[in-house]
Amino acid sequence: MTSEFEIIEHYFKKKIKQTALGVGDDAAIINVQKNYQLVISSDMLIENIHFLKNTNPSHLGWKSLAVNLSDIAAMGGKPKWATLSISLPKINHVWLKKFSEGFFKCANQFGIDLVGGDTSKGPLSISITIMGEIKKNQGLLRSGAKINDDIWVTGQLGLASMGLASLQGELKLAPSLKVKCIKALEMPTPKVSLGYHLSRHTNSCIDISDGLIQDLNHILKASKVGAALLLNDIPCEKFIHASKQYQFVLNGGDDYELLFTAPKKNRPYIEKIAKKTNTAISVIGVITQNKTLKIMDQKGRSISFNKKGFDHFA
Ligand code: ADP
Ligand code: MG
């Protein structure tokens, strides 16, 4: 197996379940339900920029799709179709087998058809476009946050950036915590089901990929509001409180948790959806009229913090 076409046929052409025409022609054809809109997003993963050299290829296959699914989750959509464009320095069958296994493990878990893509020789890079459906005009935007909304977050923050720091030898962690953090970094779980069911009960939503502060600021700017957060209410490891290394929680990237705002009266619905979808959620603060972001400690004192998140060109 030495050609581009054999690679596609062997590793990437899989049975499709919800697509009119998949891999094999010049383009794919998909049917969209009446009264729904397409929701589309792309994410690139480039070696040494988005992932370390020698990352487990199966984990990389999972993560490439998972980070894309997270964007559709943040829009309240149902992800259905993906395209995969990949450049490889050489044909490595062991790598391709593991990568495609990880990719399709994620695709099967979340009901995604791979419908096309492109394959080329080049430095290792992966670019995925994800498409999903959303009920007409029910997309969850960044711009809808209202004063006095609760600010919610899923899961635990900071794990992925702690995992990266520990792999890079910059952070020493107990063995079991290290395993948990590296798993969060390499195999994030996109909050697809929660995002989809939330859409009627929330005012705004974003997925946290570049750090809590930076991504919350996107909501604040788009919605023309401010926020007050309680540091102690942000869900994270005990290690963070003990070591006071809050930068992992506030500025660390790659969490792929959802951050959303909703009226206080919707708490019971939101808690019900979280329970149904088996997702941990926490209220970490409130949307304010004053267009700044404040973080308070237990005694109600404003703490100073680094406002920067991840920025490729910073
Ligand atoms: P073209 O030359 O017309 O662009 P290609 O030879 O690039 O076609 O691709 C042939 C078919 O294989 C197309 O259906 C394309 O979408 C699909 N394809 C190519 N690379 C991949 C990939 N990595 N994953 C899934 N489908 C792919
Ligand atoms: Mg092509």
SSE sequence, one letter per element: HEHEHEEEHHHEHEHHEHEE
Instruction: Please report the distance between the alpha carbons of the first and last residues.
Output: 42 Å
For the CA atoms, what is the radius of gyration?
20 Å
> Would you tell me the overall average pLDDT?
96
The number of E-state strands comes to 10
Q: How many separate structural domains?
A: 2
Summarize the amount of helix as a percent range: 25-40%
Bound molecules: adenosine-5'-diphosphate, magnesium ion
Number of helices: 10
In short:
The protein has 314 residues and is α+β, with helices and mostly antiparallel strands.
List the helices and strands and how they pair.
Layout: H1 4-12, E1 36-46, H2 57-74, E2 78-88, H3 93-110, E3 113-121, E4 125-135, E5 150-154, H4 159-167, H5 175-186, H6 192-198, E6 204-208, H7 212-223, E7 226-230, H8 238-243, H9 247-251, E8 257-262, H10 267-276, E9 281-288, E10 293-296
Parallel strand pairs: 2-3, 7-10
Antiparallel strand pairs: 1-4, 2-4, 5-8, 5-9, 6-8, 7-9
Helix pairs in contact: 2-3, 2-6, 4-5
Bound molecules: adenosine-5'-diphosphate (ADP) and magnesium ion (MG).
Adenosine-5'-diphosphate binds next to helix 1, strand 2 and strand 3.
Kindly describe this structure.
The protein is of the alpha+beta class. It folds into 2 domains: 4-135, PurM-like, N-terminal domain (60s Ribosomal Protein L30, Chain: A, 2-Layer Sandwich), CATH 3.30.1330.10; 142-296, Phosphoribosyl-aminoimidazole Synthetase, Chain A, domain 2 (Alpha-Beta Complex), CATH 3.90.650. Helices cover 34% and strands 24% of the residues. It contains 10 helices and 10 strands. It has helices spanning 4-12, 57-74, 93-110, 159-167, 175-186, 192-198, 212-223, 238-243, 247-251, 267-276, and strands spanning 36-46, 78-88, 113-121, 125-135, 150-154, 204-208, 226-230, 257-262, 281-288, 293-296. A 6-stranded mixed sheet has the order 6-8-5-9-7-10, sandwiched between helices. The protein has a 4-stranded mixed sheet with strand order 1-4-2-3. Strand 2 (78-88), helix 3 (93-110) and strand 3 form a beta-alpha-beta unit. Helix 2 packs parallel to helix 6 (192-198) and helix 4 packs across helix 5 (175-186). The chain is globular and about 65 Å long. The N and C termini lie far apart (42 Å). The chain binds adenosine-5'-diphosphate and magnesium ion. Adenosine-5'-diphosphate is lined by residues 8, 12, 23-26, 84, 86, 114, 116-119. Adenosine-5'-diphosphate (ADP) is lined by residues 8, 12, 23-26, 84, 86, 114, 116-119.
